[in-house]
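Help! Submission page says 'invalid entity' but I think these are all valid:
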Amino acid sequence: MELFTNQVLAGVATGAIYACMALAVVMIYQAIDHLNFAQGEMAMFSTFISWQLMQWGIPYWWAFLATLAISFAGGILIERLLFKPLAKAPVLTNVAGFIALFAIVNSVAGLIWDFTIKQYPTPFGSSPFLGSQLISTHQAGMIGVTLLMLVGLYLFFQFTRIGLAMRAAAALPESARLVGVNTSWMIALGWGMASAIGAVAGILIAPVVFLEPNMMGGVLVYGFAAAVLGGLSSPLGAVIGGFLVGVFENLAGTYIPGVGNELKLPIALALIITVLVFKPAGLFGRTIVKRV
Amino acid sequence: MSAAAEDAVTEAPAVEAVPKRAMTLGTGTSLVILAALLVTPIFVKNFVVFQMTMVMIYGIAVLALNILTGGSGQFSLGQSAFYALGAYTSAVLMEVANVNYALTLPIAGLVSFGAGYLFGKPALRLSGIYLALATFALAVAMPQLLKLHFLEAWTGGVQGLTVMKPDAPFGLPIGQDKWLYYFTLAISLAIYIGSINLLRSRSGRAFMSIRDNEIAASAMGVDVAQYKTLAFGVSAGITGIAGGLSAIVVAFVAPDSYTINLAIALFLGMVVGGVGWLPGSFVGAAFIIFVPNIAESISKGLSGAVFGVLLFLVIFLVPHGARQVAMVAQHLLGKLTKKN
């Protein structure tokens, strides 16, 4: 039983990473109805910016805030320059655009900061949390920040004018335009927010996986799995999905014989496919009814 | 986000409709290109011949994806999995069971067809981005599955398998590379013609009706589920043949040659070549083989960025890929001949 509790706790801790990433994935999916394959690379780039700021001697939290602002602006800039002209293009073209963005960001980060692994500081410390050996204060802080972000997003979308306008623009663009919502800018805003959330995710993950241009590869796959599991239309679902994927991955690695570390990824992916087949809308997503 | 009781989703079809005649090249142009392909190996170095063979092999794989996406309107980011399956089937048959290399290809095709059909069964309930995600998952998982311990006796585990490169038969006086070039050319040609005929047949029309409007297709009596799975199977089967060919030509298979990057490359090849335009598959294949090299030669450290920028240029300037270029060229040519 103790093994079980420990594994669940460890799973929750890794799950927090996936939850952060899933939240960013869901944000952008809400705004543009596409999965951004370059999301992980954008987050990695933001993390490098914050690292650079700290190298220049700026204190952690100031660097954190500055990175959020830069990422937000960067997200909007990318949308305005590259993806707004593609808004009416077929989905395939958009996916190709994401892949191009992925290649560019990854390569530029490699050129500026090279591919050596870098240590990344944590403001929470890494001592055991409440005496538990399995979960460190950094991981606890990570879970805390993820939940805080979730609450913040909920309040933003439920109780602010812009939040309402963004929801309207995502749900029914034509009607939203008729009542005076600038839907085009709402999409840009969605990109900016997703980029900022990704930056938070990157900064939180970096102390665990270490900072390097390819740090997001595996994490993004799990982030997708989490987002799909929770439902692509629900930020709460994405976060719960993230924790579930983390716990599931750990339990499968421990209790299913022959799984071990090698097969963890295929297991996570089998989970995606199973969920997609039996409940395409995810655990918390809303089913989209099409009018014929 | 709050739930609306009913969302009216007026969705544009994921893939633009391509008129059937616009899917191929004219007979004259095709024959000229074929003649050029037959003669070229006499004049160029062996390495170039090898690269051209690889272009054709990737071309077949892109063509397979094109049948799935351009034909039936479904996505796949998991083609590398079927490519790997075909490659391993051929390699294992040749090395472990000593089967003649040419005979392994139809078996590789059948095995991949079966796998694609079975994967397509549950996957056909998904559409658009969800299908892309499920196939993406398959592609990511494939290298791990190939490394499994209990398969190591056949697959060679992480190390992979080395395959004997076949010599030209009947004592023909040409080198291995040139022989494999002509061998691949013959198979590409057969698959190309077969695919065109498939898309012109009853089944092909069923695929395209599903692509354009699923509901209308089922109202006209097209068994949507059956044909979607079939398209998936056929596409996987052809990809498997391409994979088998690659195992013979490269003479080596290893799990890490078939990562998600391969699937992404094939996908890009299709977009660059023009979705739904079959000859474009080979143009797209040339793009994914040569452009990374060009990018590397422009800037070593930034090769990824250069590749990305070139890709963005293609997307912005010629969103319909090589098809658009070909059509503009045809148009200009028509104008010129009229003047004279």
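Support: the input was valid. A stray whitespace character was the problem, and the output above is from the cleaned input. The longest helix of chain B spans residues 46-72.
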